[in-house]
Amino acid sequence: MMRTAGVTKNALLQKYGMRNVPRYTSYPTAPHFHEGIDATTYQQWLGALSPDDSLSIYLHVPFCKALCWYCGCAMQVARKYGPVSEYARVLEQEIETVSGYIRHPGTVRHLHWGGGSPNRLNPHDFSSLMAVLRRRFPFAEDAEIAIEIDPRSLDDSLVEAYVLAGVNRASLGLQDFTPSVQEAIHREQSFELVADRVGALRAAGIDALNFDLMYGLPYQSVSDAVRSLEMALTLAPDRVAVFGYAHVPWMRKHQNLIPTDALPTPEVRRDQAKAMADTMVAAGYVQIGLDHFARPDDSMAKAIEVGTLKRNFQGYTTDDASTLIGFGASSIGSLPNGYVQNIADTRLYEESVRESGLAVARGITVSADDRLRRQIIESLMCEGKADLVAICANAGIATSALLDDQADLNEMQADGLLSWDGEMLEITPAGQPYIRVVAASFDAYLQAGKARHSGAI
Description:
alpha/beta, 38% helix, three-stranded antiparallel beta sheet, disordered N terminus, 21 strands, single chain
């Protein structure tokens, strides 16, 4: 049995891999948002923005044609198009309202369409929404406009609409190509279909492509995961994200359709993640933080090289905007003052926007201590290290004030997860799978909260 600093890999897995910790796409994390942040607060925060605050925009389309049983997103099935079209009109109203509160909007450098399946919008509604956005916000000439795509419902008319609207990056959900796994997660799509849609996007000029794959799926072996990844790599994506399936049926009831005894064991999940990472690196991709990979000439690989990689609600990103404006049901915005989140229920979201133009449900003000801890957590998640002394000095506090109790870090150092000399904290190769656990040591909310999160592996 392999050992790390006197601790076996299985012992590390049992000790740290089972811990329920956030994914840290924000800090404080969403479970700690509260109803004390409302529409009035949001209006004030929007009004305080200046032209120097560069903007990023996220739009949430919570509709899919069919339900994928593994899905953890805020979504609903819409087999008929009527509800989708109505939602698009409400989105337009929210865009108009929010933009009206920003006196002097900064330049938009990133725009991301997420879901659900954004390609559930038909070409007319997608184009109309993009036109409203461009009319209400100034866009940089080289702005990245990205969209998440379900390959099964991407037709040529949509591809044409994306090109005309300026879309220049697409992220395709692949998950796994093994037929038995696809059947178990209720998402059947052939490699041939994906290859055809990739060809259509590239032929139209959208050649910056990301692929999403998963491990930890029901009935999925290590060889299944690796074979699916190798098939995906024949299509030469620019970036690949390899996500661990989060089985959270207490949050997503439909996940109860997946039998628990069909899920891989923690040991298999660990081996799947490592085998997929090894495959990506062997293929010449650069590993980005916890679960992303990019070609060496991709902007994300360059960002990690120069220390400018960021993390937001879409995961790892090159987006360094000071403000993220979220539109749509359940969407989250990040502003200099704090976070806001819209109503998650689509019907209630639409009613609120029709009534007042906004649909804020909750949020949180970010304190000076939050900003300090956010910087440390983001540095660990993105770079695998954090200069605690320098970060604390910039904030005007002593490191000792941040770390009242150093027992957790000392224990993780003894177990070989990190090296720490009192100044620079650095994740070791053995600690790489447990970055989220190390980051959680700096989470002031986690111990006090009752939120349930997915396992670390």
